[in-house]
Amino acid sequence: EAGVAQSPRYKIIEKRQSVAFWCNPISGHATLYWYQQILGQGPKLLIQFQNNGVVDDSQLPKDRFSAERLKGVDSTLKIQPAKLEDSAVYLCASTGQVLYEQYFGPGTRLTVT
Amino acid sequence: AQKVTQAQTEISVVEKEDVTLDCVYETRDTTYYLFWYKQPPSGELVFLIRRNSFDEQNEISGRYSWNFQKSTSSFNFTITASQVVDSAVYFCALSEAYSGNTPLVFGKGTRLSVIA
């Protein structure tokens, strides 16, 4: 079974630029999460999808962050415009039939200069 | 509100030593799940264990063991006879249990370095 795929793995941009990250969850997994992991901290939830609907986006900075999961499969997270404090690893995770087990992708490391 | 505290920021041990990683949690829920994840240098979070709040039995898996004590709100993780490959950041996490898909609340992690 293929794991959670994410791309790109690394991205360097200047502040005020835009960036997008892509995630493909494990096949058949209905729930998809995006977490932000700032250096030296644990991951923090940004947004959770159930199929193509948003379950929780209370911690998503909506003035600059957006996310979608149009067909209930893969998802895109966008930042526009980026700030220095957005430098972090963005992790995607999914949950399927085995509840309470989240499978994480390798993450996208974003550096904003 | 839920909170997970991992007071040990970094631990360094010599290979073959035993090491315990501490985790203390806060929640108002009576039903919840606790987790440990390993994050090696590659960055991917690797699931190690899940424990529900009604199961206080300790668990052993090879060189890994977990001690869950509800009375002290702790869920500690012990690695016996540590190896260099155990070097990683370890995260303790908590989730509510009202559905199977609730997001995880993570601690800040403990960086373990095992020296040969």
Written account of the structure:
The complex is a heterodimer of chains A (113) and B (116). With 113 residues, chain A is mostly beta strands. Helices cover 0% and strands 49% of the residues of chain A. Chain A contains no helices and 11 strands. Chain A has strands spanning 5-7, 10-13, 19-24, 31-37, 44-50, 53-56, 65-68, 75-79, 88-95, 103-104, 108-112. In chain A, the strands form 2 sheets. In chain A, strands 2, 4, 5, 6, 9, 10 and 11 form a 7-stranded mixed β-sheet that branches. In chain A, strand 4 (31-37) and strand 5 (44-50) form a beta hairpin. Chain A starts with a strand and ends with a strand. The mean pLDDT of chain A is 93. Chain B has 116 residues and is mainly β. Chain B contains no helices and 12 strands. Chain B has strands at 3-5, 10-14, 19-21, 24-26, 32-39, 46-52, 59-61, 64-69, 74-79, 88-96, 105-106, 110-115. In chain B, the strands form 3 sheets. In chain B, strands 2, 5, 6, 10, 11 and 12 form a 6-stranded mixed β-sheet that branches. Chain B has a 4-stranded antiparallel β-sheet with strand order 3-9-8-7, with no helix packed on it. A two-stranded antiparallel sheet of chain B has the order 1-4. Chain B is globular and about 45 Å long. The mean pLDDT of chain B is 92. The interface between A and B is medium-sized, with 27 and 23 residues.
